[in-house]
Design a protein that fits this description.
alpha/beta, seven-stranded mixed sheet, about 20% helix, Hypothetical Protein Aq_1857, Chain: A
Length: about 110
């Protein structure tokens, strides 16, 4: 695992991950992955991780770790992971400068 400044976790997202991890009795490690699919070509996937893999890249905020694999980092470099609450609901969101288009729900993108 190595530290990276190529992706950020906002304080709001870190706070939400910490709360979820505590409730589930897991470490405060959020894994961001990108899968093929979604209405725009790629979609984000968030999971609590039990640990950090050897080739993972990570960043930390307020005691919470965000991890990505090297292939995912290529698609999300320069992004920020945030947690947003609105009238439409609450969700983790990725602000991705590499995305040339996205979908209305904000969970998929194309590069």
């Amino acid at each position: 695992m190595s530290q990276t400044q190529d992706i950020a976790l906002t304080p709001a997202a870190a706070s939400r991950v910490a709360a979820i991890a505590k409730r589930q009795g897991k470490p405060a490690i959020l894994r961001l992955a990108v899968d093929g699919g979604g209405c725009a070509g790629f979609q984000y996937r968030f999971d609590l991780a039990d640990g950090v893999a050897g080739d993972d890249l990570s960043t930390s905020q307020d005691g919470v770790t965000l991890v990505v694999d090297p292939m995912t980092l290529d698609l999300v470099r320069g992004s920020a992971v945030d947690y947003v609450e609105s009238l439409g609901g609450a969700a983790f969101q990725v602000t991705n400068p590499n995305a040339v288009s996205g979908c209305g729900c904000g969970s998929s993108f194309s590069v």
